[in-house]
Design brief:
single chain, 524 residues, mainly alpha, 20 helices
Length: 524
Amino acid sequence: MTGIGAVISNNLPILAIAIPLLGGFFIPLLGILAERAGAPKAKDYFALIIAILTFLCMIPIAKSVVMDGEIWVYQLAGRFPPWGINLAIDGLSLLAGIIASGMTLLVVVFSIGFMDGETGLDKYYLLLLIMCAGMIGISFTGDVFNLYVFFEIMSISSYALVAFYRSGKSLEGSFKYLVMGTVGTVSILWGVAIVYGLTGTLNIADLSVRLTAIRQVAPGVPISIILAIALFVTGFGIKIGMVPLHTWLPDAYQAAPSSIAAILAGGTTVVGVAALLRVTYLLFYAFPIGYMFIGLGLITMVVGAFMALVQDDLKRLLAYSGISQMGYILLGVGIGGLGGYAGISVVAADNGFRGGLFHMLNNAIYKPLLFLCAGAVIYRVGTSKMDDIGGLARKMPVTAVAFIIGALALAGIPPLNGFLSKWTIYVASYQVNPILTVIAVVISGLTLAYLLKAFSMVFLGPTPAKFEDIQEAPASLLVPMVILAALCIVVIVLPLLDFPIIKPAWKSLSDHVPYIKAVLGGVS
């Protein structure tokens, strides 16, 4: 490949960040010109083009990482690691990047209809695309300081998007998110300061080498490293809604536009998990931190499920459900981190990583699906209070079918995708302690109970007289929902294909040597 094609191909990692970042800033200007030209939807379609181009950047990268087994290292300004700024894309980075760009594309399509008629859409799409750039930057960055910078980019845009409606509830939800999010980013920055003070480097691969050397010569675990781990887990734990750091999440998800709640549930939390795993398991893999994730995962799983049981607002119920599902991810990756400790077999550890990351992918499918279904309901009936709704299956059959598919998948009912990831976690947890499996299965039963209750209240029973004339949601709302519902079914073939997108991600967690060699060796 020569000429401009080679330039584009060689710079795809930075283009995946630059396209949404720079494209977003053109939208306000385009909006002004479009209004004058009598084409108010131009900004919607420009945002769609930017989202498509961003997602297309991922395809050649995916081929390189998944099919060719490469780790793509990109140096900015020609400076090789550990100096300068670099992007490093392995299986975990790719998984998070594909989810971030794919969710952005689906949310933009949904927003074309869902946000129609709202004022300030130029700012909406600007912030949405900046958030996308932040998510991809988090996924791809090769140093901890820029990890913090990209988290700030993603977070600030998401705070503003939660407050988009400018109502009392949306401003309250955004403020709670802002306060907790600021605590999270400051915690991450303090963690960065500590590891830099210990090692004199910010490059993730170089940090891994130097922190491991400290572990080998230290008689115990240094207090400074314990503090750094605690700060990173606190910072990222707030971002992903881990109990007891979850208090902002239900209010923010309930108050945000449903399109934004969907990308928060399926985008920002996923890249937050990827960042948490990257920092903890690559920087501190010489320390048995898997036990911590198992404990936090169980607490998150249980609290989220029991809180979801008592909700009467559909979006709030889905928010707590998402918290509960985060517990399964933490349980799985926690078991994965125990490989080599306390007699935990390599098979059990691999099953833990495989199940946790597969569940992370699945959560990026059915959690956004359910929020988009809730958005379609709100679009037609104007409320998410389940007591005020009913009988919508006859009026909105596509939305009803999409919702029940997402609900059954999230609850882990076979043969949908959620069952396979949960089953893998069950197998891994049973190999560690059967009690873990019992708890996980019981929580899945509770999940099925509250989701069926929600489906019954919203879609079954008599239709209130005031809703007799409503119709199915517009096509732009239905298309992303149908795609995600189809993925809940299609993704079940991944185990038959040897987990083509999951396997490189879990291998990057269980074996750090290829990543370190690729980055510090300057391999691109």
